[in-house]
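Exercise: predict the fold of this chain.
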Amino acid sequence: MDDVIGTVRRICLALPEAVEKPFGGHTAPSFRVRDKLYVMTSEDGTAMMFKAGPGVQEALVSSAPDRFFVPAYVGNKGWVGARLDVDQDWDELAELVEESYRLIAPKRLSARLDAR
């Protein structure tokens, strides 16, 4: 699982001003921009959660319930869970992480992604 968390870390920290900082009393990696969460991982490293736009949660969970789920606590706010202990499409996950970042980050930082 360390390799999987390492992949999540590389994807998340490649974004402008992204930092790794645990959430609350947890020790699992979480990623923030300007101290706002855009990706969290589970304590056991088998899942990550990210913010998604309207309709994305339902589309992902209904089309691939073996890979995606509605997470406890934040699922009602549009966040999506991705299982990391199954085969995943890492290009798709990278796009979903970037979209989560765009939903959370200030517009000026999101615009830096477009300039790449």
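Check your answer against the key: The mean pLDDT is 94.
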